[in-house]
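Retro notes, item 3 of 5
We never archived the inputs for the pyridoxal-5'-phosphate complex last cycle. Fixing that now. Sequence and ligand:
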Amino acid sequence: MRFSDLTIDFPGSTNRLYQRLGELRQTGAAIVDLVSANVTEHGIAFPHDRLAAVLTESAVAGRVYAPDSLGQPAAREAIARYEGVPAGRILLTPGTSVSYWYVFKLLCEAGDEVLCPAPSYPLFDYIARLAGVRIRHYRLDGNRAWAIDMESVEAAITPRTRAVVVISPHNPTGMVLDPAAMAKLATVASRNDLALIVDEVFRELVYDGVEAPRPHGTEAPLVFALNGFSKMFALPGLKIGWMAVSGRSAEVDRAMRTLEMISDTFLPVNEPAQLAVPAILEAGADFLPAYRGELERRRNAALAALGALAPSPPSGGVHMVLPVGRDVDEDALALELLEDARVLVHPGYFYDVEGRHIVLAFVQEARVLGEALRRLAARL
Ligand SMILES: Cc1ncc(COP(=O)(O)O)c(C=O)c1O
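Structure as it came back at the time:
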């Protein structure tokens, strides 16, 4: 039997850390998972009664199948109000990961390049591989609270570069772009005729009164702002994502026509979920302050337990990156923390962090998180 090289690149094996985790769990050891960022496992939930009522209504409303290749108009109109772009420039998707794939296919021929930040969330490598796109990295500077190193963006551009990906708030550093950095990136994109792909999945999860700057209306010739309900409203299973497209009209129109075609090929977004979008946005606005406040409390509990071990507190998102000293073997440390402190964290190199670090999520309940991080701090 012949297979594609995907079977070599994606062998599906488990690394040493996860093998050991499995063994320890089999012995009944209680390990605190500081890797999963799934808040729904840790006592955070969109109000069940509102969700149940909205989904019942949308199931009834959707009993006659009448798909729209860009997504149901009522959903797009509600999202357009949230995004501040016209409804004709919104495309619904089953989530941001799929949105990335669509945009990569829209912009790139096989072997074309997209610039992504390092450190970065590992999913890009997989999506890029599936889309036949090459990833090149630009740097976030660990000595400047993970701000974008603009020189490294320009240095990474080649004749095959098609787009720059920006994640703000960023996973895993928690960095939130400042307005000047957004404007500079837009200028670089404009000067080099590149699209800007702005991942805003953590846009609503910001702390200390910080706000993430919006990419629409900047100098960038073509902008794809990606978001969805997965993180925004703690509804990852609903599978509602979108992209909001802005920029020069001719480019936006051309992009929308092809995106519509890609989406029409699959029609992958659940119809009742689409019909529920306007009501979920409305109910979500009531839920967000408490949700955001709870995550901010959990972040603060993590920072209190870690003290000086967390020199760059995250301003948004649900992850943080901790430096662990120059000579430390990250793999050995993660294994030791699992064995001795009973916490699961990731080595920094999983996320292409320069130097020696560990990466963790702060979504566990404050008491569990605080206790786990005090054990971790004692070990470090
Ligand atoms: C930065 C970032 N972008 C995108 C995603 C994927 O989001 P979705 O659930 O909408 O596919 C994640 C999920 O963890 C993420 O951390």
